[in-house]
Amino acid sequence: MALVTCKGSSASSFTHQLKKFDVFLSFRGEDTRFGFISHLYDALRLRGIHTFIDEKLPRGEEISTELLKTIENSMMSIIVFSENYASSTCCLDELAKIVECKKNDQLVRPVFYKVDPSKICSQNGKFGEALAKHERKLKDSKKVERWRKALYETTNISGWHYKHRYVFNDNYCT
C-alpha cells in the first residue's frame, strides 16, 4: 500500500506516486476507516483489484500533489460520502480532482454511506453547514463553488446508497 502525505510532509515519503491503480478510494476516515472502508478495501483487494487507500494520512489543510497524481493515474474512483465528508477540505479537494478526471473518461461511482443523497445534492444539513464554514474560513468563494459543483455533479452519478443495506440508484437530484 502507498503512503500519502498532506502539507508538511516530505514528498519522499510517498512511495507509489507513479504507480497506476485500478481504484482510488475517497472517504472521510473518521466516519468510515475502521469499518466500511476496511471491508470494502479488503473485498476489492481479494478480487485482485489494485486499490489505493491512504495509510496514516496526516491531517492538513492542503492535498498533496502526489495524491492528485494518484487520482489522475487511477482507472476509477469510488467516493464514499459519509456524514462528515464535507468537513474535510482534503476530501473536497479530492472530490474536485475526481470530477475533473471524470471529464477525461475516468469512471466514478459514489457510495452514500448512511447519508441522504438529496442532502448532498441540495447541500443541506451537515453538508451545507460544512460548506458555509469553509466559505467563512477560506474566504475563497471560487474554491467553495468548485466544491459545491463537484458535490452536485457526483450526486447525479449512478451509485449505491447504504442505510442498512445497499440500494442502487440512478439519480438523486431530479
Automatic annotation (TrEMBL):
Q: What is this protein called?
A: ADP-ribosyl cyclase/cyclic ADP-ribose hydrolase
Keywords per UniProt: Hydrolase, NAD
Q: Name one GO molecular function term.
A: NAD+ nucleosidase activity, cyclic ADP-ribose generating
Tell me what organism the protein belongs to.
Answer: Lithocarpus litseifolius
Q: Please name one Pfam family that this protein belongs to.
A: TIR
What SMART domains does UniProt report for this protein, alphabetically? TIR (SM00255)
**UniProt xrefs under SUPFAM superfamilies:** Toll/Interleukin receptor TIR domain
Q: Which PANTHER family match?
A: TIR DOMAIN-CONTAINING PROTEIN, TMV RESISTANCE PROTEIN N-LIKE
* Enzyme class, first EC level, given as a word: hydrolase
**Does the record carry NAD as a key word?**
yes
> Catalyzes what?
NAD(+) + H2O = ADP-D-ribose + nicotinamide + H(+)
Q: Which domain of life is it from?
A: Eukaryota
The cross-references to InterPro entries, in alphabetical order and at most eight, read: TIR_dom, Toll_tir_struct_dom_sf
Pinpoint the TIR domain residues.
19-155
Instruction: State which Enzyme Commission number(s) the record gives.
Output: 3.2.2.6
Lineage of the native species?
Answer: Eukaryota, Viridiplantae, Streptophyta, Embryophyta, Tracheophyta
Mention one GO biological process in which this protein takes part, according to its record: signal transduction
